[in-house]
Fold this sequence. Notes:
Elements: E1 2-5, H1 10-21, E2 26-29, E3 50-53, H2 56-63, E4 70-73, E5 90-94, H3 104-120, E6 125-129, H4 138-144, E7 151-153, H5 159-164, E8 168-170
Parallel strand pairs: 1-2, 2-3, 3-4, 5-6, 5-8, 6-7
Amino acid sequence: TVLSFEGDTVFESISNEVCKLYKINSLCIQWGTQMYEPIKLSNESMNFHKFYVWDEFHKKFYKKKNKKPVFKIGGYPFIDRIYDSKKEKKILFGLRPRSHAFSDIDLKNYLKLIRKIIISCPDWNVIVRLHHKMDYTVNQVTTHLKGLKYHLQGIDVNLQNALSKTSIVCGVHSSLLID
Length: 179
């Protein structure tokens, strides 16, 4: 059996074709989330034998454009980490790359929201976390937040460690919100 996570890369598509050719089972485990239409093109017509999703919502969502895989509900892997009463007074804002569901205007509005939160919550530590596929410059982010007290967090900081010390997480169409 060949195991994949997320299932939306060219490598996984090619791997599935090779699996079919050699009659090898392929299994994929959902990693991120997609909560909006249309479904990413790379998540259409997947050829996995089985695709494990988090819940019934995601099963129905992915099944719309994927007839081949047998969908199984496996649950969310980090559910035990969701609540911790010892978290610090921190708000983490996760940035995301631009897409059909997150335009330049959306980015500007999101940064305006972050600015308002920083100003209205001076006793909270605000973290603005960069995305590993960020397609805009750090300068575009810092320009909107100039003169304010916040911490810009890179992807070098382990996400699970960052979230374990955070009280509130904000994001737009991001699996960060589920982590």
